[in-house]
Amino acid sequence: MTPEDSRYAKSHEYVHVEGDIGTIGITDYAQKELGDVVFVELPQVGTEIEQGDEMGSIESVKAVSELFAPVSGEVVEVNEALADKPELVNTDPYGDGWMIKVKMSAAADEIEELMTADDYEDYIRAESGR
Amino acid sequence: MLAVIGVDSIDRLFESIPKDVQLDTPLDIPGPWSEIEARRYFRGLAAKNKTAADHVSFLGGGAYAHSQPACVDQLLLRAEFLTSYTPYQPEVSQGTLQSIFEYQTHQCLLTGLDVANASLYDGSTALCEAVLLAERVVKNRTKVIIAKSVHPHYTETVRTYVQNLGLEIVEVGWTSDGRVDLEALRKACTGGVFAVAVQSPNFLGVLEDYDAVAEVANTIGAVKIAVVAEATSFGIVTPPGEHGFDVCVGEGQAWGIPPSFGGPYVGFMVVRDALKRHMPGRLVGETVDVDGRRAYVLTLATREQHIRRGKATSNICTNEALIALAANIYLSLMGKEGLREVAMHCLQKAAYLRDRLQTISTVTIAFRGPVYNEFVYRTPFPAREILLDLEHQKILGGLPLGEFYPGHDNEILVAVTELHSREQLDQYAKALSAAVARGRR
Amino acid sequence: MTITEQEPATAAVPRGASREGLIFEHSRPGRRGYRLPPLDVREQKDLLPRGLMREAIADEVEVSEVDVIRHFTRLSKLNVSIDAGLYPLGSCTMKHNPRLNEEMARTPGFALSHPLQPDHQVQGDLELIWTLEQTLKAIFGMPRVTLQPVAGAHGELTGILMIHKALSRTGNPRKYILIPDSAHGTNPASAAFAGYEIRELKSNSRGTVDLEALEQAVDKDVAALMLTVPNTLGVFESDIRKMAEILHGQGAYLYCDGANLNAFVGIARPGDMGIDVMHSNLHKTFSTPHGGGGPGAGPVGVSERLVPFLPAPTVERRTDGSFYLEFHRPDSIGRMRAFNGNFGVLLRALTYIRSMGPDGLRRIAQIAVLNANYIRARLKGTYHLPYEAPSLHEVVFSDRNQTAHDVHTLDIAKRLMDYGFHPPTIYFPLIVSGALMIEPTESEPKEELDAFCEAMLAIARECAERPELVRSAPHTTPVRRLDEARAARQPVLRWRR
After folding, report:
1. Considering the entire predicted model, what is its pTM?
2. In the prediction, which pLDDT does C82 show?
3. Are residues C193 and C341 in the same domain?
4. Which of A38, A39, A64 sits opposite B307 (nearest CB)?
5. Residue A87 to residue C484, Cβ atoms within 8 A
């Protein structure tokens, strides 16, 4: 089930907002499509990211995907656990598989541009129907 | 078969090719030839060459004549090695995969670095890949320093590869001992430099001071690339990994691969562990199958072109797998003692020849630095003339250095290996002495 | 870290092929595999400075010749190979490797020639390279061919660099290379290496390039289109002459990826189709052995206007019949590699082409296409054919009919191994979901094709009746399905003591 309390990008990243901090990761649909995750490349703490920009990549055995920032801001924390256990992205994408926390700079405008959980579920239904 | 397909002739199957483009006459080329005719032709061609087959050869310059153990070819010609494909399906390719894993291990042991790949095309393109890797790793810098004493063909190839990528090659020359000019290197190491590449032994045959070069490169955080064109030198010279280098690339031809007019050869690349995800080429890793059996598989494939496509670490697909297998078998046969012994023979025999040549009046050794199995000597006469004279005495005496570096027309680069007997070395000295005497008249 | 400690093979343990340890595990102190003559010059000390002198490498192997022969012989038995049977890998052209090629390559006068010898000493080598160029010129229908590139991807880079330089001469190298979404991964990788950005061209419902889409896509920022002919579905781009016109009309070039030349060698010539530059793979169409992944050669043919940009040196012939290396080529893109290309591979290819002769070459394409169409006809009722367009030398199916039973292309491929076949190419081209690309080549007799088809049909039945058997395949190979995720997450890339 897609968590109600987050917002979703077309490129399958989610952002969960608490105050001005956004926790970002990839969705359950995305981890299923990728397969067993073997490596995640994330930006360093202190990096400024812009909504829509490439901010890293995620590799499975057979594929690699770019990660795109769903919101703009400064990276304040990175999930170090993924370095040793990238499979957390598969087993718990919305929980222990989180990737970065960002101090958002334009939350008010940008969050509205992202999809709600319902919209996202419609979106992936349409995508996988192809 | 045509009936099953549902057409009345093979021509119908080619209808998708426009009629006006299809040939109505056969190609104008010779053949078909039987084996007998083919042998006649190719042996006739080969007979037009003058090679180490019928002369004593002292040629080096990035391609060396070493012994090829009899086992190598016998094993190489096994159908399962010769005619198999890239091991994409590991369940039916464990022979190839395990062999590559072993070869990767040999390369790590020899170079003192952590991760090796299955092979690259050759030493020159391996250097290109190293330069591109360094540029990826150290972002936002555009200059690479390549010592002038790196094989000139290698540097030329790098120039070709980077011509549209906005990168600049800065060359640093050598001092009278034949080693890279450290002062000039220091000056060249500015903030915009992402890598420093030196070759050891270098094209002049001289061994570089790895520590000194590494120290200079470290002042600007550049990637340190060591190039090795004479792979048997690993047997007796401490490897770049023990001197702080990050990447070692080079040419494996010296591991018993015939010179074959320049190819096929086998390039190698070995890197520090931290760089492994930036490696080009195939990597074989160890894992288990569903029954818990140890097994080998191509891994970290997401770097490669068939997955990453436009963002791949390289465009390489077909590499030099069979030549790598030959090198692998050679390294296994030679082993711990053999690798050192071959290198010791090369070192000692080259020293012997160097001493003999120095006793010939007017012949001088061009560079004072330590050498492995190649060195440059100078006579009062153009190298081409001396070499022609030696050729008439059935000796391929070396390479004219002036062909690679303008202004060195009287210098000759000579290579010695374990194949040379003392008699042949004495013969060289005698022949050179006669050539020089003739030159004086 | 090693994942498992392999027990030494003892009499008590059944010696299956998969229990062959690493050569390092066979090592025993004091064993030697090779003997040198005694050193016949006086051994001098201190030839190398202390910091550069190395002792014997501690962890290197110590094995005898017997150990080495046994080890590699046992390893070889774990491989399948084209010598043992059909290898239906699409786009790889796994044809028979004639042994005469191997014998000729080992002629001492060739094997021992050194790449830096002066021209007058290597007239045989130079004549061979020149002769192969003339032969490929005739086959391609193009005025010049470079033999420097050592692989298809290397040839692609060569060709795109030439286009870049030619366009730079007009003042503008341009920015983009158009590449169909069905292309092999080396195409965009090579274009990126040459400094271009890629614009993907979507294939139409026939699986080919849509002319209108091409016309819209080609503007003054486009340097070239990279086209595989026939494409990776095995379908010929019948509109190729029109495509060339569209490109040339905008001052752009048509690059042809010639990996699939086996489909029309001797039947038609790329040069007659408006192609400006094309690489070919000698280790595909021209029978040089794959060797587990190389060596290869990727000669590149060019049209007249690209000739000045060829890699240097080229091999030329004087009026007196002697040959030389021409270095003075001021507009050349430079050298693509040290020395002269994979000479040993060139030699093998020329041996093959002469053995075939002009009628033989034509026959290759005819039988290759016949064989592929036979397989297509036998399997198309059972396996889903995503594109109706006629196939030439290879045919692409998908797993759509089998996914209904929750069996996928990967499982079918693994199950084929139990029937004794190497699987076809899978999951390529990307435009077909669950692609199975089958290229039998002309080497296969009808009996082998029938055996392959019977196996595929049997597997299709198994998908319906015993899907679990297929999903857990292979069952009879030396090792079964591997944990590839583990290999990528905790990479162990070498042995350690």
Report:
1. 0.93
2. 85
3. yes
4. A64
5. no
